[in-house]
């Protein structure tokens, strides 16, 4: 009898570094270390981006965590509210094309 609740994981795909994965396959919530690995930069540089508010973090957590959507906002240079995050409506950003951070 086959158990339909068991999920087979392709170990080769699961062990790929984050930066080699397609964006839709990375975790929804990331650590500073994972963001650094994905961007292939130092963790200290990620912290600079966070401190400059270039990358938003999830509020109310003991450790710094970044929602994948906030990483996407950074990568596309769209403010999170403009892409439907932080209570915003998609495409409701400034009409002049500025990023609005």
Describe the fold and architecture.
The protein has 101 residues and is mostly helical. The chain has a domain of 63 residues. Helices cover 30% and strands 6% of the residues. It contains 4 helices and 2 strands; from the N terminus they run αβααβα. Strands 1-2 form a two-stranded antiparallel sheet. The chain starts with 10 loop residues before the first helix and ends in a 25-residue tail after the last helix. 13% of the residues are buried. The C terminus is likely disordered.
Compact summary:
With 101 residues, this protein is mainly alpha-helical. The chain has helices at 11-14, 32-39, 43-51, 68-76; strands at 29-31, 65-67. It has a domain at 21-83.
Summarize this structure as a short list of keywords or feature phrases.
101 residues; mainly alpha; globular; 4 helices; 2 strands; two-stranded antiparallel ribbon
How many β strands by DSSP?
Answer: 2
Biggest sheet, in brief?
A: 2 strands, antiparallel
What overall geometry do the principal axes of the alpha carbons give?
globular
How much strand? 5-15%
H/E series, N to C? HEHHEH
Estimate the mean pLDDT confidence. Answer: 77
Computed Rg: 16 Å
User: Low-confidence stretches at least 5 residues in length (pLDDT < 50)?
Assistant: 95-101
- What share of residues is helical? 25-40%
CA-CA gap between termini: 55 Å
Work out the helix count: 4
Adjacency order of strands in the biggest sheet: 1-2
Alpha-beta classification: mainly alpha
């Amino acid at each position: 009898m086959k158990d339909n609740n068991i999920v087979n994981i392709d170990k080769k795909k699961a062990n790929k570094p984050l930066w080699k994965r397609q964006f839709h396959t990375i975790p929804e919530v990331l650590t500073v270390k994972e963001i650094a690995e994905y961007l292939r930069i130092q963790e200290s540089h990620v912290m600079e981006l966070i401190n400059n508010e270039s990358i938003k973090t999830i509020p109310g957590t003991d450790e710094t965590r970044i929602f994948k959507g906030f990483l996407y906002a950074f990568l596309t240079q769209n403010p999170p509210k403009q892409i439907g995050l932080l209570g915003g409506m998609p495409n409701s950003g400034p009409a002049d094309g500025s990023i609005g951070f």
